[in-house]
Amino acid sequence: MCNVEQTRLGGNMIVFDKDLCTGCEACIKDCPGSAIKLEDGKAQSCRACIQCGHCVAVCPVKAVSIPEYEMNEVEEYVEADFKVCPDQYLRAVKFRRSIRSFKEKNLEKEKLERILDAGRYTATAKNMQACTFVLVQERMEEFRQLLWKEIPGVLEILKETAPDYEKAFRSFYKKWLRNPKDDTFLFNAPAFLVIASENPLDGGLAAANIENMAVAEGAGALYSGYMMRVLGTSPALQEWLGIGEKKVSCCMLLGYPNVKYRRTAPRRKADIIWR
């Protein structure tokens, strides 16, 4: 039987395998919360921690684990597999575009899982990992119908709370009534993603990585402030999505672009202050 030190403090459990631990102190030096100490030449927890996983990642002999996490997903670092070429990464960022024309084709499940994994592995404040990802694709038509059913009520609320949005959304509604394919809210995208989180910054950071991963998978995305406004005004849509008490941090349309871009788009000169 392995000689392990299982420490649960404040509800968190970190496991140190004493047979493997060499007492090198790499985990102690890298722990952001100073939550690890050396006792009898072996590492062990000394206070509650945020379970950031740095100790797991830095240990040279794989002596640390966090049982409640998906330890089977931990990957060994191989530079050739992990390193990203800086020039290629910057070109990818420069080439991405907001997509408003999508192909009538669903995203494959395995691609969606990888795209959402990019959000799941994004850093969160205090390692809360408290983002909820609601991906609508199989029931997209049901959601679309509920959305347009809710729009008249949304317009009445916005008339009092945000008249500029009410005016714009009413024009969208009239266009849709004339032609249901003219959808300025969902742009006929095959998938709709809602990110809800306790900390809005967590959701925003996750969304950025999700979009980059979507582009890497050959898909495209559109951040939708319009849909954030609609969801914030419609309890029925919030209930359908099942986001609970968390606040919507981001709404995003996903799908394969039905447009081909041939070059990057220009930007203004950067406003940078060097000190």
Topology:
Layout lengths: L3 E6 L2 E6 L8 H5 L5 E4 L2 E4 L8 H5 L5 E2 L13 H4 L3 H10 L13 H12 L11 E5 L3 H22 L1 H16 L12 E7 L2 H17 L3 E4 L1 H9 L1 H7 L5 E9 L20
Antiparallel strand pairs: 1-2, 2-5, 3-4, 6-7, 7-9, 8-9
Helix pairs in contact: 5-8, 6-7
Structural overview:
This protein has 275 residues and is of the alpha+beta class. The chain folds into two domains: 4-73, Alpha-Beta Plaits (2-Layer Sandwich), CATH 3.30.70.20; 87-255, NADH Oxidase, CATH 3.40.109. Helices cover 39% and strands 17% of the residues. The protein contains ten helices and nine strands. Strand 3 and strand 4 form a beta hairpin. Helix 5 (109-120) runs antiparallel to helix 8. It is elongated, with a radius of gyration of 23 Å.
